[in-house]
Amino acid sequence: MAVNLKGRSFLSIMDFTPQEVRYLLDLAHDLKSKKRAGIHNEGLAGKNIVLLFEKSSTRTRCAFEVAALDEGAHVTFLDANSSQMGNKESLEDTAKVLGRYYDGIEYRGYDQEIVADLAKYSGVPVWNGLTDVDHPTQSLADIMTIEEYVQKPLNKIKLVFCGDTRNNVAYCLMYICAKLGIDYVGFGPRELKAAPEVVKRCEEAAKRTSAGATTATFTLTDDPAALIGADAIYTDIWASMGEEAKIPERVKLLAPFRVTPELMAKTKNPECIFLHCLPSFHDFNTTMAKKQMDLGYDIREVTDEVFQSDNSRVFDQAENRMHTIKAVMLATMG
Fold it and tell me: Would you tell me which of 69, 123, 173, 302 could form a disulfide with 99, CB atoms 3.0–4.6 Å apart?
C-alpha cells in the first residue's frame, strides 16, 4: 500500500501507522545518502516555513533550518520574544494568520495542546519540535541511528533508557518502540517511573500495530539485570537550566543510573551502542556542571569515558535529526 502523508501534521509518532513510520525512516536514509552525494532535489522550492520556539535549542533549530534550505524552502524563526502568540494575540488567531503566510509550522515549547491547536487552526502541516510530553522528530533520528549501527531487525532490538523514565524523550522512545516492535526497558528510580497510563497506551498500541513475536514489550525497573542483552543504552540530562532547585534531590535519585563503563559492561554486549539526545553533561566543561560540582552535586548523566567511546553514536544521532526532519517536511508538505 502506497503511503501518502501530504497535508498531515507530525505531532506524535502515536498518530502514525508502522508503515508510515517505516516510510519516513526509509526516506530519511535516502535523503542522507543523497546529501552526502551532493544531490539536492529542492523538493520544497517556493515553500515558506516558520519555526516557533518558546523553548530554545541548538539541534532542533539548526536541523530544521538546514533541512529546509537544502530543499529550497524559506525559513522564518520566531522565538518567545518575537511573537505575540498567547500575549497580545490568542493562539487560535496566531495560527490562522500564520497559516495564511506559511506552508508549514514548527513548534517547540511546553504544552502538547499548543502544538495540537496550531494544527487545528492553521490549516497547514504542523511539526512538533518538542513538548513536555513528546519529541517525535528525536525518536525518528534515534531509530535511524540504531538501524545504521545495530545489525539486527528492529523487532529483535532491545533499547534501554537510563534515568528519569517519565520525561518526554523516554516517552517518545516508548511510542516509536510500540510502532516498530522494539523491546523497551526504562531503567531508573521508582520515584521517577513512567506514568502507568503511558505504559498502558504503548502496550495497547503495540498489540494493535504489531503481530505475534514482533509485539514490543515495556519493562520499568531499577534492577541492573534488565541491562543484559541491550543493543542500545540511552540517557538524557537530569536537570535543565531553571531547574537548579531540583538538583540535590534528582542527583540523589539518579546517581545509581549514571551511564558508566561499568554500567555498559552489565549489558554483556560489547557491541552495545550509546545514545543521547544532547546536550549532555558528560564532563565539567560547562558552566552549569562546574557550578553544581562546586556545590557538591555531580550532575553528569554519563561519564566522559562512555560519551567519547567507540560505542558512542551521539553525533551521528545529532546529524540524523536533520535527515529525519527533512523527511517529515518533504512527506507532509512536498
Answer: 123
108 belongs to the catalytic site? yes
Burial 48-85 (b: 16+ CB within 10 A, else e): bbbbbbbbebebbbebbbbbbebbebebeebeeeebeb
Amino acid at 146: I
Is 277 among the catalytic positions?
yes
Which residue stretches of the chain have pLDDT < 50?
A: 212
Indicate the Cα dihedral angle 100, 102, 107, 111, nearest 10°. 10
Is the overall model pTM greater than 0.85, yes or no?
Answer: yes
Catalytic residue among 59, 70, 117, 138: 138
Looking from the CA of 306 toward its CB, the CA atoms found within 13 Å total 26
- The answer to whether residues 254 and 163 touch, using CB atoms and an 8 Å cutoff, is yes
Nearest to 301 by CA among 184, 166, 133, 164: 164
